[in-house]
């Protein structure tokens, strides 16, 4: 699948590819309630804030937080079947980040992809209830 290939290496992904992924995935996730996306996004923003407060980027300081996003979204997917595609997407994204060579660039792209997916989810009318 094309999006899997694009997401194999987050440190070399282009901004145009980020937008392409986010647009497709944001549209795919419209059956997911906005609050479910928002709860997950809050965890991502917490990690992003941790990165922004670092004097010098150190992936090891956020690695556990990044990896723990997988069980966090798995819990939501276990409660609601419609979250499973989002869980699969996040799993691929976390794996791509951890496999990337340039962790700092890959982490920034990771945040950009998630933020963009959330924006497109809202744009395409993600469920409020």
In brief:
This protein is an all-alpha fold. It has helices at residues 2-6, 15-28, 34-52, 63-67, 69-79, 84-99, 103-123.
Question: Could you walk me through the main structural features you see in this protein, from its secondary elements to its overall organization?
Answer:
- The chain has 129 residues and is mostly helical.
- The protein has a domain at 34-123.
- 71% of the residues lie in helices and 0% in strands.
- The chain is built from seven helices and no strands.
- It has helices at residues 2-6, 15-28, 34-52, 63-67, 69-79, 84-99, 103-123.
- The longest helix is centred in the C-terminal third of the chain and has 21 residues, at 103-123.
- The radius of gyration is 14 Å and the shape is globular.
- The protein starts with a helix and ends in a 6-residue tail after the last helix.
